[in-house]
Amino acid sequence: MNKLKIEGLKVKVADKIILDNFNIEIKSGEIHVIMGPNGVGKSTLSKVIMGHPDYEILEGSIYYNDTLLNDLTTDKRALLGIFLGMQMPLEIDGVTNADMLRTALHSKLGSNFKLYDFINDLESSVEKLNMNKDMIHRGVNQGFSGGERKKNEILQMNMLKPTMVLLDEIDSGLDVDSLKTVGSEVYDYFKREKPGILLVTHYQRLLDYIKPDFVHIMVSGKIVKTGNYSLVKEIEKEGYNKYINETKKESIGTCAVKEMISNE
Amino acid sequence: MNKIDVVNDKIKSKKINKGINVFEYEKKDLFDINKITININKSENLILSIDNKLLTKLKIDISVKENCSSNLYIYSKGDKAKIKYNYIIKENSSLNVFKYNDILSINEMVEVNLNGYNAKIDYIFKSIGKNKESYDYAVFHNHKNTYSNIVNNCVNLDGNTNIQISSSVKKDIAECICNQYNRIINLTNNKCEIRPILYIDTDNVDANHSALIGNFENEELFYLETMGISKNDAYKLLIKGFLIGGITDEFLSKKIIDSIKKYWR
């Protein structure tokens, strides 16, 4: 049983508080969904868990099992079994997908890395995701459509076999067929490997394929309401206004952060 | 494949087909320099390997005859070199140059003359700077409907890397494509410089230039690190991608990978 536990987390970037007194606990075999309006810190959360250098933890702790992550480098967090599927995966010129994944698996498995198994796993995962086989030998996300980039993130998840999966708006930019492929593939992985999953999403449609155990509403850098799947239906119907009005504090999130950083 | 091995300023060995002629000119006095002339008369590919054990001073002329299409792979290694390359591309000919420099200190001049209708050059250059690197390019579009694409990708590991590149399209020379893409990954706090210049004295030309100096983006490193790749390995991957990108030949790829293993253990 693995457990990601965040207690009293306060995070700032460029002198602005993004997360404030944030708490959550995610165990293996649980699917948590975080929903909320734009700019409340949802994407920030996943980046902070992975140790993005732009964000500074002022208070609180992030534990994965017995390991305090606060000062751990990003690669060490990933090697503990935490994976982040990004909202806007980067294009990296010249570095091929195969090369990147081979290096990542080599870092994880060391001398247990087997090239033959790697090639077999990669080919089978590419096929399941309906990806073009040539993509694995192209530069990371180079010339990929939005949907292909998201599939590529799921490919990485399948290959790295994490025990805690963070997926930041993995459904954005996907057409109906790709959404089904990605949603089903994530859920298959969940059934097979029983990781803890934290999903950040704006839409209910992804949850047609991935059934959550917990749904959290996030406003102004903290969770203001936790419930079950019925909460998703409520949000679809009534929106976030009720929760926003209850929260008086200043709201700021990744979109605002990017603006601040670029203005510096 | 055709291959010419040069040590310092002289040809040590050559293995070439009839489609390529090579001439050597020996300097007459102390103020003169050795010259190698390579005439490509058929669509042949060629490897030119230069080992600069002493201070090499050399001029290399490479001429591509009409209606030929060739790939030229240049690998230059060693301590110090001052080399001037002069490329002449004639009508309906194209030359793809793939070049990698692994030299401690180099001062290089490159002149390109596109002398006939539909003459083309694609020039992909890679280097790892360790002390002082200076590159000075002059690209002349001397005929209409000519094409030049010059890509300089340098990693500055130590010292300084400087690139000056000027492309000229004179009056009445129309329908040319003239591109320059220059990037230096500077892994030091030392000063590096790129001066991209376009002299365009006519309309109807498609010309682009770019110059970028800096380190890799933090986001690129973070993306790779989220997969469990250490910062050092992430750098290696990015440098490999930067230097190997666009190089299709095994000979040069291997040389670049060997260098990465040597400098980033």
Your description of this structure?
The complex is a heterodimer of chains A (264) and B (265). With 264 residues, chain A is α/β, with parallel strands linked by helices. Chain A has one domain: 3-Layer(aba) Sandwich (Rossmann fold), CATH 3.40.50.300. In chain A, the strands form three sheets. Chain A has a six-stranded mixed beta sheet with strand order 6-9-10-3-11-12, with helices on both faces. In chain A, strands 2-1-4-5 form a four-stranded antiparallel beta sheet, with helices on one face. In chain A, strands 7-8 form a two-stranded antiparallel sheet. Chain A has nine helices and twelve strands. Helices cover 38% and strands 27% of the residues of chain A. Chain B has one domain. Helix content of chain B is 14%, strand content 58%. The longest helix of chain B has 14 residues, at 231-244. Chain B is globular, with a radius of gyration of 19 Å. Chain B is mainly beta and 265 residues long. Chain A binds chain B through residues 50, 52-54, 73-75, 78-79, 83-84, 86, 89-90, 92-96, 99-101, 103-104, 107-108, 139-140, 156, 160, and chain B through 217-220, 222-231, 233-234, 237-238, 240-245.
β-strand amount of chain B = over 45%
What is the CATH superfamily of chain A? P-loop containing nucleotide triphosphate hydrolases
**N-to-C span of chain B:** 32 Å
CATH topology of chain A: Rossmann fold
Report on the biggest sheet of chain B. Answer: 14 strands, mixed
Q: Rg of chain B from C-alpha positions?
A: 19 Å
Total individual domains of chain A:
1
| Mean of residue pLDDT values of chain B | 93
Strand content of chain A: 25-35%
What is the number of helical segments of chain A per DSSP (H or I, 4+ residues)? 9
| CATH-derived architecture of chain A | 3-Layer(aba) Sandwich
Task: Give me the oligomer status.
Answer: heterodimer
Question: Structural class, judged by helices and strands of chain A?
Answer: alpha/beta
